[in-house]
Design a protein that fits this description.
Strand content: 5-15%
Distance between the termini: 83 Å
Helix content: 25-40%
Oligomer: single chain
Largest sheet: 14 strands, mixed
């Protein structure tokens, strides 16, 4: 016989042995955990048969007798009661803890531990056990609520969060490796004290827009966290004496350091020049939003001796004034392992070919060179560098080319040396002539062995590149994914824009091949 809707829902929602039971009310059907007193199948069928029988009365007596009914099948034996599986029975409770922790780890790697782990811990006991594993809390960012930040409300919010951290630090953060504190104004010292007491595996600390960082807090952290090797203090108010004391304590193991330039940066750089961080690999000094008018004097040779293992050097948006080397002074040891040099600036700076040579004369492994805003650098100076496998070259001049006398020739020297390795090339705002750019970009169409160039990003904004030159380079570089032709005075109208993605770049090529020349 066809099964009734009640039987179907009963078997679907609470099958025998699942550990769940149904509770039916006037307008809803509840699925509750636990075996409980479940209604047997025979009882349900008997109830249905009773409801189908006609009620006694005159109509039933006058009714015509029906044929002899078929014998009813014997009722099925009641199923054996399911074993007690506890209140958290179900698929979530049957997943092994190791697999559940691995799944949580994938989500944490994508979105961070919060708020996911806090919400997952409320699902059931097994999920709470998985979410409580300290291995999942390896990267944490802590910031007080934005709504209550002004005036006294911010202090109250920080104290409330600090109360929660007093429990979280010893119970969840024992394997914490990367910690970021943002917008802490008054409770930085207690938080850093908790970190020093509960997070011995900390390797990276970032303080962004934090105030009240004391010398005692940083020194205590350096002594307690023996694996701490990276410190980011950009956009935070930290006294130079505190940073110097920290570097003196943790200097031999320091690998990465980020600073915001101020009048106190000189003392910190002095500590680096004295070889307190001989293993430093990344050094970034940025002027931030409020650009300082005080030039930074940095002795190149002393920095090479103090940080011989440097791999990344970024001096961003600084008015950098290198100290002259003097006559008869031997060149410094260089940076043998340097792979990235960024001297980008929004205004013209004092970096020249001579300064660039002093920096890179011993850096054959350079991969990225960012000289945006360095208008004194010429192609001849770049051609003399020892690096042979440069992958990214940025020479853009943004908003300053109208006030400078730029070189009109020399761009073929750049592509002749690095056409086989360049992946990103930025010549925006440069004053090279049409013929010079044509010769330079023609290097990408004559690759030996029939292989395609590695170029995937080309910025020609504000240059005098011609349609035929653009067509040639796009046809020769099938891997080109970004092409900027904004403000190119020699191109037809409607094509002077940036193209992102292979489809847009190919559309630009089709337009250049089919569109007749038009006024610029």
């Amino acid at each position: 016989r066809a099964r009734s809707a009640e039987d179907w829902w009963w078997d679907r929602l609470a099958p025998s042995g699942s550990g769940y039971r149904l509770l039916q009310s006037d307008s809803m059907l509840l699925v509750l955990p636990g075996p409980g007193p479940a209604r047997a199948r025979t009882q349900r069928r008997a109830a249905r048969r009773a409801s189908r029988q006609s009620p006694p009365g005159p109509r039933a007596a006058a009714a015509k007798p029906k044929a002899t009914p078929r014998p009813e099948p014997e009722p099925e034996p009641a199923p054996a009661p399911a074993p007690d599986q506890g209140p958290d029975a179900g698929w979530g409770n049957r997943v092994p803890l190791e697999i559940l922790v691995h799944i949580f780890g994938l989500l944490v790697a994508a979105d961070g531990p919060m708020p996911f782990l806090g919400r997952a811990a409320r699902v059931c006991r097994r999920w709470q056990e998985a979410a409580s594993q300290p291995a999942l809390w390896h990267t944490v960012t802590l910031s007080p609520p934005l709504a209550s930040r002004p005036a006294k409300g911010g202090v109250k919010a920080e104290k409330k969060l600090l109360t929660s951290l007093e429990w979280l630090m010893p119970n969840r953060f024992s394997q914490l490796q990367r910690l970021t504190l943002i917008h802490w104004k008054s409770q930085v010292h207690p938080v850093l004290k908790l970190v020093g007491e509960s997070c011995p595996r900390l390797t990276f600390l970032k303080l962004s827009d934090c105030h009240g960082v004391t010398t005692d807090a940083l020194v205590m952290l350096a002594k307690a966290c023996h694996q701490l090797h990276s410190l980011d203090l950009q956009h935070s108010m930290v006294e130079s004496t505190a940073v110097v004391s920290f570097l003196e304590e943790a200097g031999p193991r320091m690998r990465k350091l980020w600073l915001t330039y101020s009048s106190q940066t000189t003392a910190i750089l002095g500590a680096l020049l004295s070889s307190c961080c001989p293993q430093l690999q990344v050094l970034e000094v940025s002027a931030g939003i409020n650009r300082s008018s005080t030039p930074l004097q940095l002795p190149v040779e002393a920095l090479q001796k103090g940080c011989p293992q440097l791999q990344v050097l970024r001096l961003l948006n600084l008015m950098w004034l290198p100290k002259p080397s003097g006559r008869g002074v031997a060149p410094g040891p260089g940076f043998p392992t340097l792979e990235e040099l960024c001297l980008a600036s929004s205004t013209c700076n004092f970096v020249s070919n001579e300064v660039l040579g002093r920096l890179l004369h011993g850096s054959p492994n350079l991969r990225l060179l960012d000289l945006r805003g360095c208008a004194r650098i010429t192609p001849t100076g770049l051609y003399s560098l020892p690096c042979q496998e440069l992958e990214q070259l940025h020479l853009g001049l943004y908003g300053m080319s109208d006030r400078l006398t730029l070189a009109k020739e020399g761009s073929p020297l750049l592509t002749e040396k690095w056409y086989h390795t360049l992946r990103e090339l930025d010549l925006s705002g440069q004053g090279f002539s049409e013929k010079d750019l044509e010769q330079a970009l023609a290097a990408f169409s004559g690759t030996p062995g029939g292989s395609y160039p590695a170029l995937c990003s080309l910025n020609l904004r504000g240059t005098r590149v011609t349609p035929s030159t653009v067509s040639s380079v796009v046809s020769s570089c099938p891997g080109l994914l970004y092409l900027n032709l904004e403000s190119c005075r020699c191109l037809p109208r409607g094509l002077k824009r940036a193209y992102r993605g292979r489809e847009e770049v190919q559309w630009c090529l089709e337009q250049l091949l089919t569109t007749s020349p038009s006024p610029y």
